[in-house]
Amino acid sequence: MTKRAGFVALIGEPNAGKSTLTNLMVGAKVSIVTHKVQTTRARIRGVALEGEAQLVFVDTPGLFKPRRRLDRAMVAAAWGGAADADVVVLMIEAHRGISEGVERILEGLQEVGQGRTVALAINKIDKVEAPVLLSLTKDLNERYDFAETFMISAERGHGVDALRTWLAGQLPEGPWLYPEDQIADLPMRMIAAEMTREKLTLRLHQELPYQLTVETENWEERKDGSAKVDQVIYVVRDGHKGIVLGKRGETIKAISQAARAELEEFMGRKIHLFLQIKVRPNWLEDSERYSEMGLDFKDGN
């Protein structure tokens, strides 16, 4: 059989299920999944194999109305990911229907989707009745000429195999882009930082939604096969340090344990994780932070 390889961009509103679908396709937790919107900042690519095809998933940030520099950079990255891809999949939540955000995405697709294969994946189909689903499918296909429509539940896995098989057939013929055993092109330092940031987001979602970032400062391989990982949690205000620490340091301890356990499971070996908290008031305006997240600082203007 002929080998195929190419990039698949998943686009949609925040929380549409793009990260969940990527993880399911890849078969490992590469993209960060939380109930908090706008958690995917970097264009994390998960690599999946389907027969002789290698699918490289570009898990773009959710498309939403940007208000700050970081928002604008994330939206630019999302559209950039779609423009660079061989196949684009628009994910929509069945129960939310055609929202104002979806209307904006459909408008954007008129330009970005030119000359590109664009499929529609209606997610969370278990949340609506069949007539509603059929009506939504008809409306969306009248607004944009989708190559194919899939009814899926990323959480439960329904319809995902059919989507992956179809995507594999759409990719251009050619050699694979990544070694067979590589599931993501992000360095482990960044994946580790994202895992810790996910735990922070889940724990502190009301107090500090987006005003913190995590960096892996040091990664030291040890002779016994384990690794020592030093990370810094950056917050924008002094008062935020106390929130992250929690009473008697309980919050940061719980976050550290959860992040370490996930990292150990992901890597299949022992990890010694050490967290520090530092105040960096202007990290949202720091171009280096954007580069580390796979975003372009200039896109935030």
Question: Care to describe what's here?
Answer:
This protein is of the alpha/beta class. It has two domains: 4-170, Rossmann fold, CATH 3.40.50.300; 188-300, GMP Synthetase, Chain A, domain 3, CATH 3.30.300. The chain contains nine helices and nine strands. The strands form two sheets. The protein has a six-stranded mixed beta sheet with strand order 2-3-1-4-5-6, with helices on both faces. Strand 5, helix 4 and strand 6 (149-151) form a beta-alpha-beta unit. Helix 6 (188-203) crosses helix 8. The relative contact order is 0.15.
Helix proportion: 25-40%
Q: How can the largest sheet be summarized?
A: 6 strands, mixed
> How many domains make up the coordinates?
2
CATH level 1 name of the largest domain: Alpha Beta
What is the count of DSSP helices, taking H or I runs of 4+ residues? Answer: 9
Please compute the radius of gyration using only Cα atoms: 20 Å
Give the total of beta strands.
9
CATH superfamily of the largest domain: P-loop containing nucleotide triphosphate hydrolases
Regions with pLDDT < 50 over 5+ consecutive residues?
33-42
User: Would you tell me the structural class of the helices and strands?
Assistant: alpha/beta
* CA-CA gap between termini: 47 Å
The CATH architecture of the largest domain can be given as 3-Layer(aba) Sandwich
Mean pLDDT: 81
How are the strands of the biggest sheet laid out side by side? Answer: 2-3-1-4-5-6
Shape: globular
The ordered string of helix (H) and strand (E) elements is EHEEHEHEHEHHEEHHEH
Beta-strand percentage range: 15-25%
Within the CATH hierarchy, at the fold level, what is the topology of the largest domain?
A: Rossmann fold
